[in-house]
């Protein structure tokens, strides 16, 4: 297994910590990530989905000796904007591929005001499968990501996405925290679809709020670790710290990344 940092926390806190927007602070961000001992990063596909963006990100990856195993993208596949979502992802992935990415981590935009209908879920799964097939034809893989809204009603939308797609076209990025928050046991997801596991997003929480670092919260990761070993998982672990109102934040992002990296090393031996 290899360990990377999903950069969402920097999207949230870059202006506070660097006095610059996320996109302008990438050099400093990559430096912090590397010093903390991470081997790679996961960042938004849009940042490296143009010739100029790919050149800039590639230069920074080389400067800081970091890999870019995966990029994150999302968009609606359940409605008549699906074609726009598909072509945007494909065009951007074609540019980003030169950076060595192997996986596009993709989240079909959840609806927060209502649940998707059965017809919308069927259309979404069909288009997700087609997107995965097209991504594969470009030498990459697609990994389904999810948030808590998709896990309502005992994981209705998540199961529809996975049940309605083929293993050969759509893999899985297991976000352990969102699974817990959505009320679906991460082990239940691995029981049904562990053979699709491509990567994991790791975060912790305490008392219903996100914790500053892995190991600071209430989650018992031991069963997850045991299951990963049983599956022979050898993909990427992406530490994805995040900030929300009401949580404790007393350390710098750099320190929280370092603590999280130390926890992964002590807990998983990588």
How would you describe the overall organization of this protein?
The chain is of the alpha/beta class and 270 residues long. The protein has one domain (2-268): Alpha-Beta Barrel (TIM Barrel). It is 46% helix and 18% strand. The chain has ten helices and ten strands. It has helices at 8-18, 26-35, 51-64, 82-96, 118-137, 152-163, 176-182, 186-193, 222-231, 253-268, and strands spanning 2-6, 40-44, 67-75, 103-108, 141-144, 171-175, 197-202, 205-206, 209-210, 236-239. It has an eight-stranded parallel β-barrel with strand order 1-2-3-4-5-6-7-10, surrounded by six helices. Strands 8-9 form a two-stranded antiparallel ribbon. Helix 4 links the parallel strand 3 and strand 4 (103-108). Helix 4 (82-96) runs parallel beside helix 5 (118-137) and helix 5 (118-137) packs across helix 6. The longest helix is centred in the middle third of the chain and has 20 residues, at 118-137. The model has no long low-confidence stretch (mean pLDDT 96).
How many separate structural domains? 1
CATH architecture: Alpha-Beta Barrel
Overall spatial form: globular
Percent range of helical residues: 40-55%
**Quantity of strands, as a count:** 10
Structural class: alpha/beta
What's the gyration radius in Å?
18 Å
Q: pLDDT below 50 for ≥5 consecutive residues: which ranges? A: none
- Distance linking N and C termini: 7 Å
Report the total helices.
Answer: 10
What do we call the CATH topology? Answer: TIM Barrel
Mean pLDDT: 96
Biggest sheet overview: 8 strands, parallel, barrel
Fraction of residues in β-strands: 15-25%
């Amino acid at each position: 297994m290899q360990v990377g940092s999903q950069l969402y926390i920097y999207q949230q806190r870059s202006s506070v910590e660097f006095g610059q927007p996320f996109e302008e602070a990438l050099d400093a961000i990559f430096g912090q990530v590397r010093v903390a001992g991470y081997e790679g990063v996961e960042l938004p596909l849009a940042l490296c989905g143009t010739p100029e963006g790919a050149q800039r990100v590639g230069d920074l990856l080389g400067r800081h000796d970091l890999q870019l195993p995966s990029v994150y993208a999302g968009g609606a596949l359940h409605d008549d904007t699906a074609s726009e979502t598909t072509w945007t992802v494909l065009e951007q992935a074609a540019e980003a591929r030169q950076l060595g990415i192997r996986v596009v981590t993709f989240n079909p935009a959840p609806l927060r005001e209502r649940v998707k209908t059965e017809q919308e879920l069927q259309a979404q799964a069909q288009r997700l499968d087609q997107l995965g097939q097209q991504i594969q034809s470009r030498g990459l893989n697609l990994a389904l990501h999810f948030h808590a809204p998709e896990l309502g009603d005992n994981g209705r939308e998540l199961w529809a996405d996975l049940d309605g797609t083929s293993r050969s076209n759509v893999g899985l990025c297991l976000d352990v925290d969102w699974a817990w928050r959505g009320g679906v046991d991460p082990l239940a997801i691995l029981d049904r679809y562990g053979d699709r596991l491509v990567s994991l997003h790791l975060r912790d929480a305490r008392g219903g709020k996100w914790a500053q670092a892995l190991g600071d919260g209430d989650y018992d990761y031991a069963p997850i670790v045991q299951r990963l070993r049983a599956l022979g998982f050898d993909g990427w672990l992406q530490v994805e710290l995040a900030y929300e109102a009401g949580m404790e934040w007393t350390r710098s992002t750099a320190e929280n990344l370092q603590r999280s990296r130390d926890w992964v090393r002590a807990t998983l031996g990588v």
